Amino acid sequence: MSKRGQARRAQHEEKKRKKKEEAEAAAATAAETASTHTQVDNVDDPILVLDKPSDVSAAQSDDSQQAIGHHNKKRKHDELSEKSPKRREAPAAAYEESSGGELDESLRVRLMRFINANLKAEEEKNQAIVEKLEASERERNELRKDNAGLEQDEAKQARTIAEQAEDIVELMQEVARLKASQRF
Fold first, then answer.
1. Tally of domains within the chain
2. Same-domain status, 156 and 119
3. Low complexity bias located where (predicted)?
4. Which of 62, 66, 151, 155 is the most exposed place for a label (fewest CB within 10 A)?
5. CA distances from 64 to 67, 98, 141 (A)
6. Alpha-carbon gap, residue 64 to 183, rounded angstroms
7. pTM here?
8. Would you give per-residue pLDDT tens digits along the chain (184 residues)?
9. Domain range enclosing 66
10. Are residues 183 and 122 in the same domain?
């Protein structure tokens, strides 16, 4: 690949990287905006209720958590289990929570789909441009080969003409010599 082609490819890669960074920045901005609109705490969140003093020490230890949860914990677990119809209908990302507050998952999913679609379209467009550049570079190389062949043919013709000119000069000199010898 020529230096010019490499430079174009590098520019293409740089543009692609910048667009990806812009898309990620837009997604982060949207996520930050959405996270500022915090939702009310979920009523079904489990509430730890410690029954015995031994449960307090067990809940505080790193090895195990033996605290007994509120009765809503079981119901919430059932709703979120993999076998529950409610869980199967909702996307897995809908049950992830962020530390800065919950992000409206449908907004996040739509945003990511939009970003991915735009990135894919830009990638396809850039790929088409790269393919066109490669095709034009191949064509240019073929033209260079043809041009080199024509230049070689031209050089051969120039050599032939020069040789013929030398022959003509020699013949003219010979004719002049013969004419001069006939005069004497």
1. 2
2. yes
3. 25-34, 55-67
4. 62
5. 9, 24, 71
6. 131
7. 0.32
8. 788 888 888 888 898 899 888 888 888 887 777 666 544 445 455 555 445 555 545 555 544 444 455 555 555 555 556 566 665 565 555 555 554 445 678 888 888 899 999 999 999 999 999 999 999 999 999 999 999 999 999 999 999 999 999 999 999 999 999 988 887 6
9. 43-100
10. yes
